[in-house]
Write a structure and sequence with these properties.
The chain has 198 residues and is mostly helical. It has 2 domains: 74 residues; 112 residues. It contains 7 helices and no strands. Helix 2 packs antiparallel against helix 4 and helix 4 runs antiparallel to helix 6. The chain starts with a helix and ends in an 8-residue tail after the last helix.
Length: 198
């Protein structure tokens, strides 16, 4: 619940207490300082009390229901955005060799930067990311580090071929990229970790 909703709730509680206190003081004054039909006034006090209490609950519902609906909607939108960010990062790294082997050098570098950026976007949603990677047997930090290491391996291939990437045939590019992936997977196995990237 955000601060403005809390402020409105505080004002609603304070107003209700103020009116109930006013009713009590008025009733107390009326009962102690006047004579007359006290039964009629007692009924009037009960009706006023009912109106104040019912108004309080109506106001409470009018505040809390829209606030909760907005909270649920924002949660859904955040979940959707986090899932999209995770999916872009994961599939971006998984399909990166196929994507960049057909690009020129500048396009390949740009693509790796974009996938790296998408990895960081996914990491912004750390609590959701924890849920998404749980089935892989890693936490969000390990997932991010694995993606970085794989991107680093691909970037290293590009750096080695910086001068002649554009003249290197596509089949050689993909072989070098797949070898970089296999080397990264071997490193993971040496540390008794499974490949969670693909």
């Amino acid at each position: 619940m955000n601060n403005s909703v809390r402020d409105v709730l505080r004002i609603t509680f304070a107003s209700t207490l103020f009116f109930l206190l006013g009713l009590f003081l008025f009733g107390y004054y009326r009962e102690t300082h006047t004579a007359g039909d006290k039964l009629e006034y007692s009924r009037l006090y009960v009706e006023a009390f009912k109106i104040i209490v019912i108004s309080f609950f109506v106001a409470l519902i009018g505040i809390l229901v829209p606030a909760r609906l907005r909270e649920v909607q924002l949660g859904f939108e955040r979940s959707k955005e986090s899932r999209i960010a995770y999916s872009k990062a994961k599939t971006g790294v998984a399909y990166l060799p196929l994507q960049i082997c057909s690009l020129n050098f500048a396009g390949a570098v740009d693509f790796i930067q974009r996938v790296h950026f998408e990895k960081h976007q996914a990491e912004l949603y750390s609590s959701d990311l924890e849920k998404y990677v749980e089935h892989l047997g890693v936490d969000a930090g390990e997932w991010g580090e694995e993606h970085y290491q794989r991107l680093f391996a691909y970037r290293t291939v590009l750096e080695k071929l910086a001068g002649n990437w554009d003249s290197t045939p596509q089949h050689e590019r993909i072989e070098l990229l797949l070898k970089a992936r296999a080397d990264d997977q071997v490193k993971r196995k040496e540390h008794h970790k499974k490949d969670t990237i693909g």
